[in-house]
């Protein structure tokens, strides 16, 4: 703020200086030796301030351009054919398991994983290793584990960029809140299982933080956005 004031007010400051300077105390060369260095210093300060302002504007413009460039790359990645097919397979596997056994507290039957480390014997729906799910998926079931790894890694990477403010927040949430929400719901139990196996609660932490931001965005939206569920 000081630099901006100096840049825009330097002419006024110089004028005020000239008006108030006690010229009658100096004569001839004495006046020249006092005034010229001060005026020169003010002019140089104004030029430096202007340069700093131009540099700051250029930096901010470049930073915003980089953010939107990364956003474009995220759009390309999320709409890649393999990414879309992996998400479709995950949605279908989740739907099969839910229709057959239910999910979460409403689940009865189906493949389960019992926590051995950090979740104190909690049971999780092991959806993507369930034999019935894999069987009903047919040939798509053979690569289901790879689909799971691809989608959760993609959203963890997006969450990392988002958390470091490297992507425009509103634009990203506006475009991906629905897809991100559905993918987290489908993969949550799988991620909890992997956390227990790896003995860390921070596995896919960026994905979870991104999901929480999605929910906040959805609920604070005017009007609130419909709670999109896996289909």
Describe the structure.
There is one protein chain. The protein is mainly α and 231 residues long. The protein has two domains: 2-65; 79-220, no CATH class. It has seven helices and two strands; from the N terminus they run αααββαααα. The protein has a two-stranded antiparallel sheet with strand order 1-2. A hairpin with an 8-residue loop joins strand 1 (112-114) and strand 2 (123-125). Helix 1 runs antiparallel to helix 2 (29-78) and helix 5 (144-163) packs across helix 7. It starts with a helix and ends in an 11-residue tail after the last helix.
Short description:
The chain has 231 residues and is an all-alpha fold. The protein contains seven helices and two strands.
Q: What's the story with the biggest beta sheet?
A: 2 strands, antiparallel
Query: How many domains make up the 3D coordinates?
Result: 2
| Strand composition percent | under 5%
Mean pLDDT: 82
Task: Give the SSE string.
Answer: HHHEEHHHH
Query: Helices and strands: which structural class?
Result: mainly alpha
Provide a count of the helices: 7
Morphology call: elongated
Task: Enumerate the spans where pLDDT stays under 50 for 5 or more consecutive residues.
Answer: 1-14
Strand order, sheet with most strands: 1-2
Rounded to an integer in angstroms, the radius of gyration calculated over CA atoms is 31 Å
The helix content, as a percent range, equals over 70%
Q: Can you count the beta strands?
A: 2
N-to-C CA distance: 53 Å
